[in-house]
Amino acid sequence: MQCSLHELHNVLTELGLSAEEEYPDLSQHNNHMAKVLTLDMYRRLRDRATPSGFTIDGVIQTGVDNPGHPFIMTVGCVAGDEETYEVFKELLDPVISDRHGGYKPTDKHKTDLNSNNLKGGDDLDPNYVLSSRVRTGRSIRGFCLPPHCSRGERRAVETLSIEALASLTGDLKGKYYALKNMTDAEQQQLIDDHFLFDKPVSPLLLASGMARDWPDARGIWHNDNKTFLVWVNEEDHLRVISMQKGGNMKEVFNRFCTGLTKIETLFKERGHAFMWNEHLGYVLTCPSNLGTGLRAGVHVKLPNMSKNAKFEEILKRLRLQKRGTGGVDTAAVGGVFDISNADRLGFSEVELVQMVVDGIKLLIEMEKRLEKGQSIDDLMPAQK
Amino acid sequence: MPFGNTHNNFKLNYKVEEEYPDLSKHNNHMAKVLTKEIYGKLRDKQTPSGYTVDDVIQTGVDNPGHPFIMTVGCVAGDEESYEVFKDLLDPVICDRHGGYKPTDKHKTDLNFENLKGGDDLDPNYVLSSRVRTGRSIKGFTLPPHNSRGERRLIEKLSVEALTSLDGEFKGKYYPLKSMTDAEQEQLIADHFLFDKPVSPLLTCAGMARDWPDARGIWHNDNKTFLVWVNEEDHLRVISMQKGGNMREVFRRFCVGLGKIEEIFKKHNHGFMWNEHLGYILTCPSNLGTGLRGGVHVKLPKLSTHPKFEEILTRLRLQKRGTGGVDTASVGGVFDISNADRLGSSEVEQVQLVVDGVKLMVEMEKKLEKGEAIDSMIPSQK
C-alpha cells in the first residue's frame, strides 16, 4: 500500500526536479553532516530507503534545520532505525570518523560491562566529589528509533520496558511513572529528585521528530533507593542512569553494570535483544552516542584548578570534558564542574570509567596543591 | 516529498488500537471527529504524493489545544488530501465553517466593482485597512509536505510572476536567506517581515523544514501590496493602507491577485481551486476565500459595552488585538475582520466588514454622546 520511493521520485521528476534541486543549502552550516554531505553523495543516497522507509532526508533534516554554532560542532544527523547505519554508511561512516577521533569503517568496538575490571574508584575524596553518575542508552532491536517510530512501536517499547523493569528485585526494585498520567504529587517528587524529564525544547531534537505524540508512551522508572533510573522513549528507547552522592564511582558503576545486564536478560527472554554490532557497539539514535553510549561523570569542586591556565589542556590529555552542573551547554556554578569521559566509541565501558576515576583522582591532587600555593607542573599527565 | 517521520512501513503491522492516538486530553476539531473507526479506515490510504492520515493529524496530536480556543488540529499536505481523507476533513470543515456540507458549492467573486461603498470609513476611527488571502499553486504539494526542490520551484515561479508586474504593482523580492541587515531593518519597520514560525501548531506540521530556504517577501514600491512566499501557504497576498478606504484596498487586492493568477496559468500552474472548497489552502480553516478583510479601529466605548460580543457575532465579525491572532487590544484599538471564510464570496465577506464597521463607528459616536445604542443592534446576518 505504501507508495515506493521510485514512484515518489517519478512525481518529482515530472516536475523536473533532480538531485541538484533537492540538495540542501549547507553554505551557512557548521555541523558534521554539512561537512560531509556533498551533492554527489546526496544524489547517490536519495534513492535509498531502509526497510522501514527511512530516507536520507529523514537522516539529515535536523542538520539542515539547525545550521550550528561556530564554536560547538553538532552532529546534524540521526538514525531512524538500526539499518540506517548500513544503508547510509556513505554519509554516516565519515561523520562517525570525524566525531569519534578517526574511527574507521573497519574498526571493532569492545564492550566490557564487567565492573570487577575497574581498578579502584571507591575512594574519590568526598570533600571534593559531590556526586557520581553513569548513564547510557539502549535501543530495542525490532523497533524503529525515536525519530521514526510509530505510536504503536513506541507503546510496544514502553510495554516491554515496564514488564522487564517490574521484574527487578532487591535494591533494584522500583516503580514506573508514565508521563501522561502522573499525579501532581508524583511529578513534584520527581522534580525534587532531579529525575523528571520533559518534552524536549531543543530544536536539535524537535527537528528530527523525536517529540511526536508527546507524552504518549514516555515515562520514568526508578528503584526505591533512587539510585537507578530509566527513561523510556525520550531521545533513545531507554536511557539508563546509575547515581549517588559522594565519590564511590565503583559502586555506581557496579550497580550500572548489574542493572543493565539484568535488564538485557529480561528483554532477551521476551525475544528482544539490544541493538548491538561488533563495529558500532550499542546502536543509538545519535551517532555521537555509538559504542558505549556511556557518559560517566562526577560533580567536583575545582575552584583553583578551573582558573589554572592549563585546565583545558589537562582535561584534553586525560580524555575528559567539562560541563556546568546543569548538564550539557550549561555553565559551572561556584567552581563545581561536571567532569566526564569525552569518548564513547572505540573504548570499552570499563576503560572509559577508569579514565574518569584516574583523571578525577589526579585533578583533586592538583587542586590540593594549588590550595597550598604549590606548583602542579610535575603532575602534568601525558596524552592518554 | 515525505519527510520521513510518519512514513513508517511497519506501523501497519500494529493493530488500529495500538496506533490510534490518545486524544483524551485534546480539544481541537480533529480530536472531536477522529474516532478509532475513521482512523482504521484511513490509516492505510495515501495521496499520490504519499501523504498519510498520520501526517494530516500530527499537529493536532502534538497540540492538545486550549479549553477556550478551538484549533483545527489537522492540515493538508497536497490538494488530494481533501479528497483522500474526506471522512475526517468533511466533518472538520463542517464544524469549523458553520455547518458547510459535503454537497455545498462555494462562490468565488473577486470583482471589486460588486462591493457597495467602503471608501468612506471614518479615518478618525479607522486607522488602517487590510485584506489578505492565501493561494496554493497547482501541481505542487503543500508546505507541510513539500520537498526543497518543490519549494524552490514555487519560489522561482512566484518571483518570475511578481517581478513582471508593473504600474502600481511594480516591486521587489527579498529572499529571507540573503537579505542584508539594512533590508531586514526596513522590512521590520514596515511590519512586513515574517520569521521562522515558533508556534508549535505550525512547526509540528513540518512547515518550518529547511528554513529559510526558498522563503521570501515581495512588495510593491508603494508598500501597499505584499506577498509572502512559502510561509504557511505557497503564497500569502496582502493589500493594505492607512485610513478607512477599504474599497481601494479591495480593488488593489482583486486586481493584483488577478494579474498574478494569469501569469501562473500561463506556466500551467494555476491556483488550486474547486467548486466545493473554493481556494485550497494548507489549513482547513482557510478554505473558500482564505480571506481576512479587516481594519484597525478605535472603539474604546463600544468594546466595553455588554453587548459588544453579541453585536460582533450578529455582524459575522471577529475581534483580535492589534498584534494579530491571539494578542490583546491596546488603547481601545481593535482589529475587526470577517469571521467566515467558506460559503460566502470575497465580495460578500468584505461587504460584511465595510457595513459592520460603519455601524460600529456610528455606535461608538452615540456612546461618546452618552446616548443609547439599543435601537441600532443589528439582526443576525
Automatic annotation (TrEMBL), chain A:
Its EC number is 2.7.3.2. GO terms for biological process: phosphocreatine biosynthetic process. Residues 128-370 form the Phosphagen kinase C-terminal domain. Pfam families: ATP-gua_Ptrans, ATP-gua_PtransN. Belongs to the ATP:guanido phosphotransferase family. It catalyses: creatine + ATP = N-phosphocreatine + ADP + H(+). Gene3D superfamilies: ATP:guanido phosphotransferase, N-terminal domain, Glutamine synthetase/guanido kinase, catalytic domain. This is creatine kinase. InterPro entries: ATP-guanido_PTrfase (IPR000749), ATP-guanido_PTrfase_AS (IPR022415), ATP-guanido_PTrfase_cat (IPR022414), ATP-guanido_PTrfase_N (IPR022413), ATP-guanido_PTrfase_N_sf (IPR036802), Gln_synth/guanido_kin_cat_dom (IPR014746). The keyword Transferase applies. Residues 14-101 form the Phosphagen kinase N-terminal domain. Keywords: ATP-binding, Kinase, Nucleotide-binding, Transferase. ATP binds at residues 131-135, 194, 239, 295-299, 323-328. Residues 99-118 are annotated as: Disordered. It is an enzyme of class 2 (transferase). GO terms for molecular function: ATP binding; creatine kinase activity. The keyword Iron-sulfur does not apply. It comes from the Eukaryota. CDD domains: creatine_kinase_like. Residues 99-112 have a biased composition (Basic and acidic residues). It comes from Sphaeramia orbicularis (orbiculate cardinalfish).
TrEMBL record, chain B:
ATP binds at residues 128-132, 191, 236, 292-296, 320-325. GO terms for cellular component: extracellular space. Residues 125-367 form the Phosphagen kinase C-terminal domain. One of its GO terms (biological process) is phosphocreatine biosynthetic process. Residues 11-98 form the Phosphagen kinase N-terminal domain. One of its GO terms (molecular function) is creatine kinase activity. Pfam families: ATP-gua_Ptrans, ATP-gua_PtransN. Signal peptide: none annotated. Its EC number is 2.7.3.2. Keywords: ATP-binding, Kinase, Nucleotide-binding, Transferase. The keyword Nucleotide-binding applies. Belongs to the ATP:guanido phosphotransferase family. PANTHER family: ARGININE OR CREATINE KINASE, CREATINE KINASE. This is creatine kinase. It comes from Sphaeramia orbicularis.
